[in-house]
Amino acid sequence: MKENPIKRRLKNNQPVLGIITNSTDPTVAELCGFSGLDFYMIDGEHSPVTTAQVQDIVRACETSGITALARVRSNDPKLILQYLDAGVMGVMIPGIKTVSDLENMVRAVKYPPLGDRGLGPVRAADYLQGGMGQGEYVSFANEQTLVLPQLEDKEAVDNLDAMLTVEGVDGFVISPRDLAMSMGYYDGPGHDEVKKTIGAVVEKIKGAGLVVGTTAASGDQAKALIDRGVLFCLNSFAGLLKTAAADFMKGRGE
C-alpha cells in the first residue's frame, strides 16, 4: 500500500484536480499522469470497464505518478473490494442517499475496526509480502483510502445533516446534472434553485470540516470553485479533449 498523495494534499487544505474517464485503455491513464494531473478516476458506472481491467489501469497510474481512484457503480461491498484490492486508493459511490447507505460504504472501504473489508494476499497489500506486517498494513490502508460519496439526489441533500456525522467519510462530491434532474430540472443545473441548493450544500460540507468536490469544465471554473472552498475538482477526459480540440481547430481560421 502506497501513501495517497491527494489525501495528504486535501488534509493540508490544498486543491486536487483530475479527471474521470470511461476508457479501458491503460495508456490513457499514463498520458494523464505524465500531463501532471493529480488523480485519475476510473468510471466503473458509465463505462464497460471490468474489474479485470482495473488492475492494469492502476499499474499505469502508478508508473506515471497519478493517484488512481474509481467510481464504483454500486454500493456493493464485494465489488468495492475488488477495486480496492487492485490498488485503487479511494472510491466515489453514486446513489448514496441515507445515513445507512453511507455507513455501508465506509464499512466496505475500511478494514476492521473501522469497517468490514476482507483481507487477502492481493496487490494492494503487496500480496502480504511487503515491508509491513499485517497489523501495520491494515492501519495504514485505513488511513490512506478515500471515501467520497456522491451527492446526486434531492433525498441525499435532505439527509445531508445526518450524513455529515458519519465517521470515516473524507468528503462529498456534488453531481450538478443528476441533482438538477432529481429536482425536476431536466435541462441542466443552470437554474437558480439548483444553484442555491448547491451553494447551501457546499457551505454545510465545509462547515463540517469535510472536503467538497464537484465538476469543473475548465481551469477558470476550477479556480472559481477553489476560491469558494471546493478542493476536489474533476473534469472528464472527453471534456478535456473536446476543449483542447476546439482550441486547436481555431488554427484553421474558419
TrEMBL record:
The keyword Lyase applies. This is Host specificity protein. It comes from Rudanella paleaurantiibacter. It comes from the Bacteria. SUPFAM superfamilies: Phosphoenolpyruvate/pyruvate domain (SSF51621). Transmembrane segments: none annotated. Keywords: Lyase, Metal-binding. Pfam families: HpcH_HpaI. The keyword Lyase applies. Residues 22-237 form the HpcH/HpaI aldolase/citrate lyase domain.
